[in-house]
UniProtKB/TrEMBL annotation, chain A:
It is found in: Mitochondrion. InterPro entries: 2-oxoA_DH_lipoyl-BS, Biotin_lipoyl, GCV_H, GCV_H/Fam206, GCV_H_sub, Single_hybrid_motif. SUPFAM superfamilies: Single hybrid motif (SSF51230). Signal peptide: none annotated. Its cofactor is (R)-lipoate. The glycine cleavage system is composed of four proteins: P, T, L and H. This is Glycine cleavage system H protein. Residues 46-128 form the Lipoyl-binding domain. It comes from the Eukaryota. Keywords: Lipoyl, Mitochondrion, Transit peptide. Belongs to the GcvH family. It comes from Rhodamnia argentea. The modification N6-lipoyllysine is found at K87. The gene is LOC115752430.
From TrEMBL, chain B:
Residues 93-290 form the BPL/LPL catalytic domain. Pfam families: LplA-B_cat (PF21948). The lineage of its organism: Eukaryota, Viridiplantae, Streptophyta, Embryophyta, Tracheophyta. It comes from the Eukaryota. NCBIfam families: lipB, PRK14345.1. Pathway: Protein modification; protein lipoylation via endogenous pathway; protein N(6)-(lipoyl)lysine from octanoyl-[acyl-carrier-protein]: step 1/2. This is lipoyl(octanoyl) transferase. It is an enzyme of class 2 (transferase). Its EC number is 2.3.1.181. InterPro entries: aa-tRNA-synth_II/BPL/LPL, BPL_LPL_catalytic, Octanoyltransferase, Octanoyltransferase_CS. Belongs to the LipB family. It comes from Rhodamnia argentea. SUPFAM superfamilies: Class II aaRS and biotin synthetases.
Length: 155, 305
């Protein structure tokens, strides 16, 4: 088990992923995070949004994703969709304000992508950001890792 | 296919509203010992203190268990309460939790990802209203004789863990069934809800928005279960739906008791007992001091929707 952990940590550092020592919740270094456990990857004025590994782990198997329509405005901190896992549906909140330009239709057929690939294939929406300054209020990878640890420790 | 004879008159009409007595919930059916040989022990326990903490938070309770509330009204009321709580939290304040207990007129409700394949009728020609809601879970039926509990609680003040919350709601029902009726119900791993054997007595489905949870649970007490036959309840094809009344009747019949109808209390009384037990168990499991609010306040709120 120890050697597997070591291998995983080495692989993780090659991929520039920091591995939390509690239960393997991954956090990607170049992404930004908010305290409701969504991530955002910014590329110019476009942002891709999803929920984090920590969030999907706590949710359990995602059975349904409620997606917004393309063109819907989103506001930082407010819900734009929902994920359902075993009798509980929870809001997904947008880390940024802007307009939805693309949604991941794959999630209609394969909601489990959020569990298996929360940062890649499980992306949820792409947003044209209206206020780049909002990114400053989000957490970086290290801060988010610490936030998760503190949250888990409380409960 | 629409069933031929649809009785919309509830088997339990609105009981003459009575003031809630101060009596403790009676533990009924002492003569009925183990309810079922095939009830599996609850495999998932929730660690809670059994004695209320003197510093426990308060929860306002609107007890409308003798009222048949239209689904739409209750739904709008919940959403308004959620909105108020969010606003309160946003402005830096806090908010007490709220508990609503009521019965509904006959209605089907569906969850966010619910499939219409679990309806045995065409939605354009449905036997009752069908509401597609924002809760989790598949289709279910609500109607007279079924107690519905809507806790609207801020999980930030409890545990920010949806699984814990679902297990806790199950725990509320498990404790109520045991304390009031000596029914040893159980969980079924992988199937949220409360079961006696392969019969589901209570269904659960929730929505969480910024850690405010709403929707809740429904426990069949004396409900006519026929409307469940017109759906695949909760999307589970090989399971049945049960009720407290059904379990009690079965238990008495199995001990060859010829006086089943005399010994089981009247339907209104069963509902009263179940309601008191649920509220008491809720207070215990969530470590809340439940403060019952006058019905007039509830109706005033309801009238604005």
């Amino acid at each position: 088990m120890a050697s597997r952990l070591l291998w995983a940590s080495r692989a993780a550092s090659c991929l520039r992923i920091s591995v939390s020592h509690r239960g393997f919740s991954t956090v990607l270094k170049d992404f930004k995070y908010c305290d409701s456990h969504e991530w955002v990857k910014v590329e110019g004025s476009s942002a891709t949004v999803g929920i984090t590994d920590h969030a999907q782990d706590h949710l359990g198997d995602v059975v349904y994703v409620e997606l917004p329509e393309v063109g819907t405005p989103v506001t930082q901190g407010e819900g734009f969709g929902a994920v359902e896992s075993v009798k509980a549906t929870s809001d997904i909140n947008s880390p940024v304000s802007g307009k939805v330009v693309e949604v991941n239709e794959e999630l209609n057929n394969a909601p489990g992508l959020i569990n298996s690939s929360p940062y890649e294939k499980g992306w949820i929406i792409k947003v044209e950001i209206s206020d780049a300054g909002q990114l400053n209020s989000l957490m970086d990878a290290d801060k988010y890792s610490k936030f998760c640890e503190e949250e888990d420790a409380k409960h | 296919m629409v069933p031929a004879a649809i009785s919309t008159s509830p088997s339990v009409t609105s009981c003459p509203s009575r003031r809630l007595s101060q009596r403790k919930s009676q533990s009924y059916c002492r003569t009925v010992s183990t309810m079922s040989n095939h009830v599996s022990k609850s495999t998932l326990s929730v660690s809670v203190n059994s004695i209320a903490d003197p510093d426990s938070r308060t929860c306002e309770c609107f007890d409308l268990h003798n009222e048949l509330v239209p689904y739409g009204k209750a739904w709008a009321w919940q959403k308004e309460l959620v909105r108020q709580k969010k606003a309160s939290i946003q402005s830096g304040g806090d908010c007490p939790d709220t508990l609503i207990v009521l019965q509904h007129q006959p209605v089907y409700t569906m969850g966010t990802g619910s499939s219409e394949e679990y309806l045995n009728f065409d939605t354009k020609n449905a036997p009752f209203d069908v509401h597609r809601t924002e809760r989790g879970g598949e289709v279910t039926y609500h109607g007279p004789g079924q107690l519905v509990m809507y806790p609207i609680i801020n999980l930030r003040n409890h545990k920010m863990d949806l699984h814990w919350y679902l297990r806790s709601l199950e725990e509320v029902v498990l404790r109520a069934l045991l304390s009031a009726f000596s029914i040893k119900a159980s969980r079924l791993e992988g199937f949220t809800g409360v079961w006696v054997g392969d019969e589901k007595l209570a269904a659960i489905g929730i929505r969480v928005s910024q850690w405010i949870a709403y929707h809740g649970l429904a426990l069949n007490v004396t409900a006519d279960l026929t409307p469940f036959q017109w759906i695949i309840p909760c999307g589970l094809r090989n399971r049945r739906v049960g009720s407290i009344k059904g379990i009690l009747r079965e238990a008495y019949s199995s001990i060859n008791c010829g006086y089943v109808d005399v010994l089981i209390p009247g339907e209104c009384h069963l509902v009263d007992i179940a309601c008191d037990a649920l509220i008491e168990a809720f207070a215990e499991v969530f470590q809340l001091e439940v403060c019952r609010k006058p019905l007039t306040e509830a109706f005033l709120m309801g009238k604005s929707f």
